[in-house]
Design brief:
This protein has 9 helices and 14 strands. The chain has about 350 residues and is of the alpha/beta class. About 45% of the residues are buried. It has helices spanning about 25-35, 50-55, 70-75, 90-95, 115-125, 140-150, 185-200, 310-320, 330-345; strands spanning about 15-20, 40-45, 60-65, 80-85, 105, 130-135, 160-165, 205-210, 225-230, 235-240, 250-260, 260-265, 280-285, 295. The N and C termini lie far apart (about 70 Å). The strands form 2 sheets. Strands 8-9-10-7-11-12-13-14 form an 8-stranded mixed β-sheet. It has a 6-stranded parallel β-sheet with strand order 3-2-1-4-5-6. Bound molecules: nicotinamide-adenine-dinucleotide.
Length: about 350
């Protein structure tokens, strides 16, 4: 049995105008666009040197622009998709300058908090932007395959989902995180919250704790335990510890889905040695066929393959496709609502434990 791992590509890809020339564009966007043969008409970054460096590394980039106005002026002459990959707090300013009616893919997170997410949403509405948020994990080859398995009903009704991440994350790569009041959930576990919503929708109850790690004292909370309850039988959990510095032996990064007829387990390789990554692995079991756990040979992983789908499906829609992309802005706003609820839950203190001796005279 084979399962979908490729997104549907646009027949004639629209040129892409990239804003932001940082790490994620270097390691995710550009390698993916190169692989999918998506044309990049130009790139702009406030730090012009970074944009020139990327042009050197990826000669298929059309032009380096030294101002946003110049990029927009050139873009107005043709049809483009704007591809924003800047720190979340800078998204609104840029969106206000994007021409009305344009298509825009916005790198996650959608703002630093729910208030900013609503501002982003409102700007997109006001400027009639065809917009989506780059929740690319939904499009990783193993997730497309897992969704295909689930949609075929092969593992039955899902009642349990689990993400476990015990890795050493190089937080120093993101200087802009220093001083931010939200780190782990907003910048990392947001992918998992989004993915859980993609599979089983919004939970009815959230319990969470996100706390600091002694190896990352300069950052706010980088370790999270999140429980999402659905009906009386259905739960999803996210457990992350990004400060496991004791070698690869006991590092873990997986996503597991359990259903009434079977299960799926995926090793997410990229988090184990970010951003180079280890190879991912996907296995599934369908109880009634008696064949035990089987491996799905994967055609790629999160980096860079997952970055093809968000752009492809936005372009398909922009070019007249009926269906909104799954990661359209209204849906992304719900993921931001869930992120906000996780932080709210973490702020509420759990039940205080007051130790008392049972052996009082
Ligand atoms: N898997 C993922 O989805 C993933 C992974 C890493 C980062 N990200 C997100 O991508 C965004 C960028 O992260 P990064 O790792 O590339 O960070 P980075 O610091 O390497 O790069 C950010 C770039 O944006 C530029 N920039 C800032 N403000 C700008 C503006 N107003 N106009 C043009 N350029 C501007 C900076 O000069 C810098 O080059 C962040 O929001 C981050 O959360 C997503």
């Amino acid at each position: 049995m084979s399962f979908d791992q490729f997104p549907r590509l646009p027949q004639t890809p629209v040129p892409i105008a990239i804003i932001g020339a940082g790490g994620i564009v270097r390691d995710g966007h550009l390698p993916a666009y190169s692989k999918a043969n998506f044309p990049v008409m130009g790139i702009y970054d406030v730090d012009v040197d970074r944009a020139f460096k990327l042009k050197e590394r990826y000669p298929f980039i059309g032009n380096v622009f030294t101002s946003l106005a110049d990029l927009i002026e050139k873009a107005l002459k043709t049809k483009v998709v704007f591809d924003l990959a800047v720190p979340a707090s800078n998204i609104c300013d840029i969106l206000e300058q994007i021409p009305i009616g344009s298509a825009v893919l916005i790198q996650k997170p959608m703002g630093e908090n729910l208030e900013e997410a609503r501002r982003i949403f409102n700007i997109c509405q006001k400027r009639q932007l065809v917009s989506a948020v780059n929740f690319q994990l939904r499009f990783a080859p193993y997730i497309l395959a897992a969704k295909h398995i689930v949609d075929l009903g092969l593992i039955g009704k899902i009642y349990d989902m689990e993400f476990k991440v015990c890795v050493s994350t190089p937080w120093h790569l993101w200087h802009f995180l220093n001083g931010k009041s939200r780190v782990e959930v907003l910048y990392h576990s947001i992918h998992y919250l989004d993915l859980i919503r993609f599979f089983i929708g919004n939970p009815v109850r959230v319990m969470a704790s996100t706390i600091k790690h002694p190896n990352a004292v300069e950052l706010e909370a980088t370790r999270s335990s999140i429980i999402l309850d659905y009906d009386q039988y259905t739960q999803a959990r996210i457990l992350t510890n990004h400060g496991h510095i004791y070698g690869p032996e006991h590092q873990e990064s997986y996503f597991k889905i359990e259903g009434s007829k079977g299960a799926i387990k995926i090793k997410i390789g990229v988090s184990l040695d970010y951003p180079k990554g280890e190879l991912p692995k996907m296995e599934y079991i369908i109880v009634e066929d008696g064949k035990g756990w089987r491996e799905v040979p994967l055609i790629g992983g999160w980096f860079p393959d997952a970055f093809i789908g968000p752009m492809a499906s936005l372009q398909n829609h922009y070019q007249g496709g009926q269906q909104s992309p799954t990661h359209y802005i209204e849906d992304a706003l719900q993921t931001m609502q869930l992120v906000e609820t996780v932080y709210k839950s973490s702020e509420v203190e759990g039940i205080k434990f007051n130790y008392f001796s049972e052996n009082k005279p």
